[in-house]
What does this fold into?
Amino acid sequence: MAKNKNKTDVFEKATVPKAVASLAIPSMLGMLVNVIYNMADTFFVGQTKDSNQVAAVSVTMPVFLLLIACGNIFGVGGCSFISRSLGEGKTERVKSISAFCVFSSIATGFIMMALMLIGCADFTGGFLLKAIGCSPNTWDFAKDYLKYIAIGAPFVVVAVMAGSVVRGEGAAKESMMGMMIGTITNIILDPVMITVMKMGVAGAAIATVIGNIASVLYFLIYFLRGKSILSISPKRFTIKQGIPKNVIFIGAPASFNNLLMSISNIIINNVLVSYGDAPVAAMGVAMKANMLVIMIQMGLAQGIQPLIGYCYGARNPKRLKKSLSFSAMCNIIIGTVLGVLCIVFAKGIVRVFINDEEVIKYGVLMLRALASVGPFIGIMFVLNFSFQGMGKALHSMILSVGRQGLIYIPLLFILNKAIGLEGAIWAQPIADGVCFIMSVVMFMLINKELKKMESPLKSGTEEDYAD
It folds into this structure.
């Protein structure tokens, strides 16, 4: 228990900059390594000199996002409920929450494995491959990739869940290590399997699965060491105490965001394929390059989520708002610097992934468009993850549905019809700008509630910006 107490000290005793740094930097580093992995994956597939294989990795991304969505239901929801429960001092409930998340994610992973294998099978006509927009040129490559990803689906779902749940008790470094071990394993195996063993996209998929297995093994050891308040004991599993409702209610918006990302990627692939396979490959490269802007900012926002949840549960709105404003300021700086770099060096960045002039031409346009909203989207991420931390599922859901669904998808079709390919390229940045404005308005409404909230001071919180 003393060990866990040390972990929760960061929530209530550390100064705001120190608390944000302690929680956000490990999360950002984990995301950065994940970005490097995604870039490496595309880079080594690109070394096959086959744009069809690059396009195949792009069109299968929505399915992988579905697995992440499944992990986020229990990971993000569990993280939020755990941090709020710790703020309320309900440590026994935390054990039951973590056990529920672990065993539910395992079951979900096996269900997804079965559905994916059936969806790619010949006897079903490969309906999943048709749905994600595979062309005759990418069909076999995509099928090979998804076959191996399906086999590893339970490990992918559990790894995503565990990384978030562990962060919920303040163990940001351990969460980062779990992510980094899996990702580094993946990065090391990519060139071996894709280039040396000449397995192409299938090798990329196998490397991804092995990396997630490594992450799960790390988290398993973390749980079994007994130094965490979290539990993976079957005896702790329960659907009472309102645990499923509270976990899924908060996890659903984050999961729905991944689901909508998956659906929107399928739609954009189907729109772009009408212009040829080169724009599809280019969008895949541009999106992965832009991950450097997106994922680092998302890592900061994700890192502070348990801090926001703890402050909300402990009824300390002063510290909550200081944490939020400091994090938003950091993300503005990060988004501006990285966005400008992507815009200025777009051609060189795209060329790193593939040396195809047609793909590069489209990729430069797409990367510059995606990176243009860097400063603003970071604020939206901070606010959205803060909404999740406070248990404001409706606000988070509205942003998720808007950014990847109700705002983006209509814009995609309208702009594509009105302007053509350039309109399709700019649909996402415009949707991001609209959602940024929505997130600010939502927080202004929530701020009225925070002003009314009682705020008993805890030791160490009065001088939040002290050295």
About this structure: DSSP finds 18 helices and no strands in the chain.
